[in-house]
Write a structure and sequence with these properties.
seven-stranded mixed beta sheet, five-stranded mixed beta sheet, 14 helices, globular
Length: about 575
């Protein structure tokens, strides 16, 4: 086994979004004597998807609302594919976590005139339950959590990229993580008693995508390589309103938030007419999957504007109101040359969120003892489609739970173990292989991946297109493996980071496509043109489970969905009956 610089911590948290920071804070609060370290690909407080959350946080607070109602909206929106125990934990945990965010960690959300928390409308819900801070909710949450993290003696490894999850020599538990110091190009073996996987998702394998370019589904890729099962990988969410900012800019695909449609914004075709009422009686307030499909059909039919997309229009609500309620969105659109308050903004559906991810339990634990997971790295909470506003709730609820669980687990069962030599060597081979290949530009591979996934495994799918995607991904991975980068200077070597990003994206894309081929129905975000659509709570409904075999091939299994909280037909079980 190669000797490497080594560090040790009791609890290692990968990621500094809502899941990672709440995990770190809860673990440190529950067991102050334990050392807690956060490793993050960027800068703590300045990176991660939670910071980019605009819309808000779903939680049942009003007397007229209830956790049961929120639960049923979540299950119905998820096409009945959700793990119902996870969904129940989400909606009940959110009621506690939102108060904790304000009263313990210092977040402040918008208020009604009587001082109660203001809640606004979001699509796909039967009650206006989305808590927010203007339209920049994520910045408020992450700023406060980052301040608390800095103040509590939690160690930070910034600009450290996680390369591989390392099991112990007997593979009975987690031993640590191989990290890459982006600043220097050096590797670090970080040994830990417990690890929280909270790197977030980031479906940046599609032409239009909302996450920042450094997001690459690294956590899911590492989990697959470590032998962990993933579920629901075919369920990729496309947000309806990504801005078309023009050619040659990475701003295209950046979202303008769900609350615009929730407040009464209109989607218009290139002909200037509304089209959503033809697709769903809820119009623009239908769930994201329905709206995105409708938009894509209009685009394919040629009903587009001069930008090649559609329009969102808010002016009929009153420009002053729009500027007041959506200040951040108005300013963002103005930066790109568009007047959201009084004019029209060109939009296109954009890849936004992974409903699939690591199979995990309601306490945050996974199949590998000592490895915990939370947030967008995990699957099962949202089923086939995530409701807008349930994402940041998912991250903060399960991040906090995982932190509490880790603290208890480490105190009773945690141990520092030597990593499996074969696992470490494989990780070192992965990170060093591009330096042994002829250096060349990676742009053609990235562009080809974007086009392949967008056209063949995107919003509208069929068997022929998915088969093309599967074979195309194999060819692109072979092309990447034959392409190297210049390794003379490894500190801030962006080509190296891009190569590693593409390696993760290609593996996760293979999982998406394999799961999409296997699901011969249309459900939620997964729409097969060659199979009928259903949201029925069918008795034979099953989740698609993806693993990676010893030869690097995708293996598939089916896991029946258990109706632990609500019976087929919609009769809610008493919570205690499912414990």
């Amino acid at each position: 086994m190669t000797a490497l610089p080594t560090g040790t911590t009791d609890i290692l948290v990968l990621g500094s979004g809502g899941a990672g920071l709440l995990g770190a804070l809860h673990a440190k609060s529950a067991a102050p004597e334990l050392s807690v370290t956060v490793a993050v690909k960027g800068l703590l407080g300045k990176s991660g998807c939670t910071r980019m959350v605009q819309g808000g946080y779903n939680v049942a607070l009003a007397p007229e609302d209830s956790a049961e109602r929120h639960f049923m909206d979540t299950i119905h929106g998820g096409g009945w594919l959700n793990d119902q125990d996870l969904a129940w934990t989400l909606v009940t945990g959110a009621q506690r976590r939102i108060r904790e965010l304000e009263n313990r960690w210092g977040c402040f959300f918008d208020r009604n005139p009587d001082g109660t928390i203001h809640q606004k409308a979001f699509a796909g819900q039967t009650f206006d339950r989305t808590v927010h801070k203007g339209d920049l909710t994520g910045i408020e949450i992450i700023n406060r959590l980052a301040e608390q993290t800095w103040a509590r003696g939690i160690e930070r490894l910034e600009e450290h990229r996680a390369i591989a999850l390392l099991p112990s020599a007997d593979r009975s538990r987690i031993a640590g993580v191989l990290l890459l110091d982006i600043r220097s190009g050096d590797l670090l073996l970080m040994r830990a008693r417990a690890v929280l996987l909270a790197t977030g998702g980031g479906p940046t394998m599609y032409t239009y995508h909302t996450p920042s370019g450094d997001k690459a589904c690294d956590g899911m890729a590492m989990a697959l390589r470590a032998g962990l099962p993933l579920r629901d990988m075919e369920m990729v969410q496309f947000h309806p309103t990504g801005v078309l900012a023009g050619p040659g800019t990475r701003m295209s695909g950046t979202i303008i938030e769900e609350g615009l449609r929730g407040s009464g914004g209109y989607l218009l075709g290139g002909d200037g007419q509304r089209f959503m009422p033809r697709y769903d009686p809820r119009g623009e307030r239908a769930t994201r999957d329905i709206v995105s499909r409708a938009m894509q059909r209009e685009i394919l039919a040629g009903n587009v504007n001069e930008h090649g997309g559609l329009w969102i229009e808010m002016g009929h609500l009153g420009p002053d109101r729009v500027r007041r309620e959506f200040k951040g969105m108005v300013e963002r659109c103005a930066d790109m040359g568009f007047d959201l308050a009084a004019g029209r903004v060109p939009v296109v559906p954009t890849a936004h969120y992974m409903m699939g991810g690591v199979v995990f339990r309601p306490d945050g634990s996974t199949a590998l003892p000592g490895l915990f997971a939370a947030g967008e790295d995990t699957g099962g909470v949202h089923g086939a489609n995530r409701l807008g506003g349930n994402g940041v709730a998912n991250s903060t609820v399960f991040g906090g739970i995982a932190g509490d669980t880790m603290a208890r687990w480490v105190s009773k069962e945690g141990a520092i173990e030597a990593p499996c030599p074969a696992g470490l060597d494989a990780a070192l081979d992965l990170v060093h292989v591009p330096f042994a290949r002829p250096a060349a530009t990676l742009t053609p591979i990235r562009d080809a991946l974007h086009a392949l996934m967008w056209d063949k495994a995107g919003i509208l799918r069929d068997a022929a297109g998915l088969a093309e995607a599967a074979s195309g991904l194999v060819a692109l991975e072979a092309q990447l493996d034959a392409t190297g980068v210049d390794g003379r200077s490894r500190g801030f070597n962006l080509a190296w980071q891009d190569w590693l990003n593409l390696k993760s994206l290609l593996l996760v894309s293979r999982a998406i496509v394999a799961a999409a081929i296997a699901r011969e129905e249309s459900r939620g975000a997964h729409w097969r043109e060659d199979f009928p659509h259903t949201t029925d709570e069918a008795a034979g409904l099953a989740a698609t489970i993806v693993t990676l075999d010893g030869d690097g091939r995708i293996a598939l299994d089916r896991q029946p969905v258990a109706f632990t909280r609500v019976r087929p037909g919609g009769s809610l079980l008493a919570p205690q009956a499912a414990e």
